Amino acid sequence: MKHLFYIFLIFLITHSFAQTREDSLLVVLNGTTDDYKKADLLKEIALEYTTHDNNKSIDYVNQSIALSKKINYSKGIIEGLNQLALNERTKGNYSTALIHLKEAYVLAQNESDLNLSANSLLNIGDVYSTLKNYNKAILHYQKAYDIYLKENNRPQLIICLSRIGNRTMDLGKELSDSTYFFKAINIYDAANQQAITINDKSKSIVLNVNMADAYNILGMYTGNKFHIFHSINYSLIVLKLSREYNIHRYEGIAYLNLGESYENLGVLSKAIFHYEMALKKYIEADDKPWIINTCKFLAESHIKKGENEKALGHLNKGLMLALKQNSKENLRDYYELLARVYRQQNDYKKALENQDLYRIYNDSIVNENASIQMARLQTDLDLIQKTIKLLY
After folding, report:
1. Separation CA 86–CA 124 (nearest Å)
2. Alpha carbons 221 and 75: distance in angstroms, whole number
3. Following DSSP, what letter does each residue of 75-114 receive, concatenated?
4. Please, are residues 54 and 87 in contact by the beta-carbon 8 Å criterion?
5. Is 169 inside a domain boundary?
6. Contacts for 132 with CB less than 8 Å, ≥ 6 apart
7. Rounded distance, CA 265 to CA 39, Å?
8. How many domains does the chain have?
9. Can you tell me the distance from the alpha carbon of 124 to that of 97, in angstroms, rounded to the nearest whole number?
């Protein structure tokens, strides 16, 4: 009898662990009679399904919006529209996503709910970021920032400034204009001051990472080593803070940025040392995307040193992971590096094979970027047409 009790207990434990968060929320939903709580739970279930079952997520969020409208629950409608916009953005329906968000923003304005207004603006900025329309993204992030500034909502101010900084960096790369990198650094610094004020250690570390990265890119664009030394300084701050606050997940990126800085300075032995330290951290964390990136950096440094066998070791390791993740940009870069190594080894057959694979992935990425530009133009056109329909 005692054995049966233990078997039953093990069944309960394993069943509870196997239960997903969606299942847990559905159990709570079925036991809830309060319509306001039901609307919130339906939206929360929709959010959980977003990453792996978008259609099911849409079904639940539509239920949430319908119930919120029935009980005149404005907050539920606004948050539901924001979730529905995320679903449409995931499907690539950018104009529909923006229409939902603009409707949510108008409702929030009518309700005089500044936080929900600002959240809708942030999400509009994210759609424009996906479309690589960086100026429009920054415009909406700035509007959200202005609202949060009135509300003295420092955590959200940091998020706004970080996104404005990131898009400003993107503009600098797109336009090959180093002045944008200077602007981004000032924005990151302002965000970091906010993080220090509210003692948000994690955000402060991330912003130091951003500044290290920005100075490194600035050094590459301008050829000014002074900026790279600044990057090294910020990366060392990240290492120090990560250890001091016991937030070790940022050590890998600090080592990676240090490796890039030393590679840009031409000190390849130091670059390789820091890349290896980064790789060790990422292997410990089983962080496959960053393992792929770090192996690529290590391979490139070894190629520069003429150590082709060591380069091949890292390339083969990273390539296997990149293939499993179907990471197109990484696959393109890996095949290009493999072609370089095999050319240096006079293995022209393998060099040609990898060069052909590089071209295939590069063409695919070029086509995807062209599709994003087309989607951006189509979104603008759709919005104009739908606005005209509303007016007439």
Report:
1. 10
2. 46
3. HHHHHHHHHHHHHHHHHT-HHHHHHHHHHHHHHHHHTT-H
4. yes
5. no
6. 170, 174, 369, 372, 373, 376
7. 56
8. 2
9. 8
Candidates 109, 125, 128; CA nearest to 161 is 125
Residue 214 tokens read as 């920005």
Within 8 A by CB and 6+ apart from 154, the residues are 194, 197, 198
Which pLDDT band, with edges at 50, 70 and 90, does 18 fall under? very low
- The pLDDT of residue 11 is 39
As given in the structure block, the two tokens for residue 107 are: 């409702």
Taking the model in full, what pTM does it have? 0.83
**92: phi > 0 → left, psi -120 to 50 → alpha, else beta; which?**
left
Residue found under tokens 């009518």? 110
CA gap 379, 202 in Å, rounded:
36
112 inside domain = yes
Whether 14 has a pLDDT exceeding 80, the answer reads no
Tokens of 202: 């994690």
Q: CATH code at 111?
A: 1.25.40.10
pLDDT at 196: 96
Task: Report the C-alpha gap between 67 and 76 in whole angstroms.
Answer: 9
- Residue 145 within a domain: no
26 lies in some domain: yes
Using the structure block, give the residue that is written with the tokens 């999400």: 123
User: 339: domain range?
Assistant: 287-373
8-state DSSP, 200: -
